[in-house]
Amino acid sequence: MAARHGGIAAGTPVQIARCSTARSRQWQLSDEPGNRAVVIELVKAVRRSGPEGGCVTVRHGHTASGSKVAGERCSSTRSQQWTIGRHGHLVGVKSGKCLTDPGAGPAGTQLEIAHCRPRHRQHWALP
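Given the sequence above, the corresponding structure tokens read:
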């Protein structure tokens, strides 16, 4: 996955991308103190101003299937918290839904959340 155009300005879509060492594709899982959740943080995003980095966030705190995922400044809100579920799922703490590639692979497809199912479009290789 990657931050579109290499940035993490508020609302930047998080999308499917081929694996590489590009700065917009360097993510880390960070533990959230006091619970089992993690945040998915872009380590070295390219921004025109302000600090680097940002977190994978369900836009506007929505919980419906099909809600888009984007980069936002890390704030530890529940819409930025994920648990590691069965089948390699990343499950949104607020929504209870899985991080999903709705296009099942084409680069440039914006990620969203959807009901968790044992499908390849919801499986993530985690460290």
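The two ends are 14 Å apart (CA to CA). Try to locate this feature in the token string yourself.
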